[in-house]
Amino acid sequence: MRxxxxxxxxxxxxxxxxxxxxxxxxxxxxTFGLLKSGILLTLVDDGGGELDGYTAGTMAAYVxxxxxxxxxxxxxxxxxxxxxIKSGDIAVDFLRPADVQLASIADDVGRGLFALxxxxxxxxxxxxxxxxxxxxxxxxxxxxxxxxxxxxxxxSHALAYxxxxxxxxxxxxxxxxVLYMGVAGLLTGLITPVWLFPGWLEAIAVATPFPAVxxxxxxVLSGRTTGTDALWLLAVQAGWLALALAAGxxxxxxxxxxxxxxxx
Amino acid sequence: MxxxxxxxxxxxxxxxxxxxxxxxxAQRAYRASFRADLFGTAVVGLTELAEVVVLFSAANGTLGGxxxxxxxxxxxxxxxxxxxxxxxxxHVDSLARQVRSGTVDILYLRPQPLLAQLVTSDISLRRVxxxxxxxxxxVVALVVNDxxxxxxxxxxxxxxxxxxxxxxxxxxxxxxxxxxxxxxAQEVTNAFVYGGRHASTxxxxxxxRSITVIFGFVFPMAxxxxxxxxxxxxEPGAEWLPAWxxxxxxxxxxWAWTVALLAWRAGVRHYQGGGG
Lengths: 264, 276
What we know:
heterodimer; A: 12 helices; B: mainly alpha; about 0% strand
């Protein structure tokens, strides 16, 4: 266990070396945040100040928390492990005395956690200062929210790892990745809150692990979901994480048998 | 004389044509992979469409002064122009990687303009999937909406698609020029390249003042789809962006290209070589 904690810390430190990149990301997040809050707040206004349980304040919280999380969760790109599977370097990783899947995810989660500092917090700051987003006044939502956030970030990297393992069987996973990017972008609730979807699409979304990546942590952290409901969301997140990790482990073991490394 | 000029022109484009033809052949070689890519880009377009549909369906009739079908006209125009620009110019956006690895040096050595070489170095045929979806949405929106058809509407439509395409291409070139300076901070350009795409599909009436300045005028995204669509629909437009401004889309495109070429020139001159 200690070795994975150290890999996680190393990932955290690695990311701290890319500060200009982090601030560039923040600028992009802030632009998208302003674009999203413009249309979503108009939507809440037109609905008479309340829409599907969202007020202007909680909608702003949704916009800026979701933008702030973008540096930490991975819903777009293949993890570095996928590149190593493609190049065959993963064969070296198999020789190391650490589990390939856990080590890879720990590294990515470490980087993601660091990104909360230069990208997550300022994004929330922009939201509080510029548009007056509502945040809960009690301590409990923050405590539960922190756990939920950690679960969501880890789940996103566990899912990305699972996606990357497809590379054991396919030569080119780009088509798959583009597909994943589209579906995940919609169903995590990044584009619009899952709760604004029409009923059938909401049902599909809730049946997938994607809302557990982003929508649930935001709901818990912003105090939109509280009490036993919040605990239930955490349990759902933990369940999806266990499933994703188990599937990744199975895929890694099966893939190891089919892995072909070319060259001398 | 005319024959000589045509001959010289064909001589001029021959190397570009050879490269592009090879890229097209390469992409068609792996048919299964290409089909998966086509499908993938269409799905990305579909999720962008889903966002508009979800938002405007959740709205109480209209959102930002537009109903769902009017919003789809804006979306169709913007999406088609962006997707076409992405197909021809999208790879300019990955210039940072080439600058970092030093492979840009090769382009400096050849006796052709750098930008022309870079643009013609690739073409992403897979984006046809997304363009096809945009065409479908646009046609449906044009049929369902109350458009007063005539030479004016046809001219507006053609102008909007050409100018929108030009503006999105200009954004890619501006981003490319800035990559020479930014290197690792590539996401700065995502703010106006992809943020601009996002903005161009929205009704400008919902924009906060800072966004109106940035995406109404600095990067003239409102001219790609929203303003021409408002002219087509006979709607008044937004407070700072009245519909009649839509007729000035060519001026907006010229402005975007002026910025793009200045950024590009600054970037190319700034580059010191990969040290190879």
